[in-house]
Amino acid sequence: MAVKYEELVKNFSWDEVKTFYAGSPDGIMNMAQEACDRWADDPDRIAIYWEDSLGNTETWTYQKLKEKSDKMANGLCSLGIKKGDRVAGMLGKDMELVITILAVWKIGAIYVPLFTAFGPDAIMHRATDSEISLLVTNREQISKVEDRNPSFQVLLTDGITKDGKSFWEFVESFPDQFEMEPTNGLDPSVIQYTSGSTGLPKGSIAAHKGIYNLYPYLKYALHMEDDDVFFGAADLGWSNGLLVCTFGPLSLGIKTVVYKGPFQAEKVFQIMEKYGVTNFSYIPTAYRMMMAAGTDVLKKYNIKVRKFSSAGEPLDAEVTRFFQDNFGRAIYDHYGATEIGMIVNNYNITDMPIKPGSMGLPLPGYKVGLIDEQGNEVKQGQVGQIALDTTMGEGLKFRGYWNNPEKSSEKIRGKWLLSGDLAKQDEDGYFWFQGRADDVISSAGYRIGPTEVEASLMEHPAVLEAAVVGKPDKTKGEIVKAYIVLNQGYEPSDELSETLSLFVKNKLSKHQYPKEIEFIDSLPKTQSGKTQRFLLKKREYEKQANR
Ligand code: ATP
Ligand code: MG
Predict the structure, then answer these.
(1) For the residues of 421-436, what is the DSSP string, one character each?
(2) Residue 396 above 70 pLDDT?
């Protein structure tokens, strides 16, 4: 039975949420206890269906996860890892990685996720900044940094240890009992580097109680239920893949699918059918690729997904409608950031109306505001910066950036924790994303957010993706310029540029439409799939300077 959003907010109580957990967020709490050990008494309880692109499969129970991660925790201790040390993992969606992360938490050490597509500089920046003692990875990955003489220890999943053991021989050589470190709820559990959409990535610290802070998001926005089979395709190198898609469902004791392989629309449909996936979450680009695969592909599969969620970037109305038409279910857009968590969402558990293009309403248990430069809340309908009230409920989730007090304090304005993103609220309280504060275009006295213009362009059948930036202009300060990736079957031309400009002009307004359009093969993106508008804008400014 769907519930009303208003009732969810009214009846919400953190004290009640606390009773769900084995530990106490105000006292002793450990993420490995919550996401693994507490569910391990039942030998049949399935935690993970694992599959790779070669078709290898494994089924992991919570009991097996506990046994192997206990062994691994003993193994890490034998390498000298202790409470507070930083251990990085750089692997794909491997079970070796999942047990390593649990083992790191069991010791009270801090996990640093590294994405496998990172190059040498990206790896070394994060490894040095967080001063890791150990990197768990494989031969392919470590070859990227071997010539940098890294000072940390390395454990390879496909290599041989000093004692001549393979990774699994190493793990199996230790006892399957480990006394977990009684970490405090506020002790750091993860240093998660941000995506770097706006500059150098920052190491955001999450605490063990972060898993408890996630509860309302998992239960209401994703609407995870006991009988769900959850499939979250995001990589474990990112906050969403690590905390939301993997250890989130595990903390609720439910089944989750871990697929190791490149993203491919048809493969996703196959996995959904094979494991009877009921609950799915990924990023907008992936949903757009699933849409682009066409209805013929989709009709081949028997898909039982009842809940679709998207996060990470603005979700355009077109793709939401496609899912509504073909799956009988809209995609629910969720908004958040590494530092603040998922704070504005559409809730799969409710019967709230979905307004395509809007990211929904504040997360129960939190107070979200839109504030001006002085830290005052703006009037309804006006654009402000999304911020979290740190004095309310569980507002103070942010534990600062590792080794970076300056950037940490820039994140706080009075009682508010800043997101760096702009939005406005409509008369029903729904949030509408306007773009990152840094991406706003200033043209002839207007401040124009790129999001609305991009969403409007994507409504046109020719447009697959769009990024809108400010191009320097003598008279107007900046003009609106759109970079466009075309759908298959469309060719760049002046006529098409003209058509697209007019299309936006007629739908939005005279001041928002793109005065200039450039067709491009692909948009510059972070490895987590976020458009880096600042690079396109920089390009425009450099072109101007070189004239
Ligand atoms: P950096 O802080 O290093 O520039 P980043 O902000 O992209 O990188 P993340 O924390 O991974 O790093 O991403 C959070 C950002 O993603 C948000 O601040 C917001 O700009 C964007 N975002 C996330 N979800 C949504 C959404 N549903 N709609 C629009 N934007 C979103
Ligand atoms: Mg950010």
Answers:
(1) EEEEE-TT--EEEEEE
(2) no
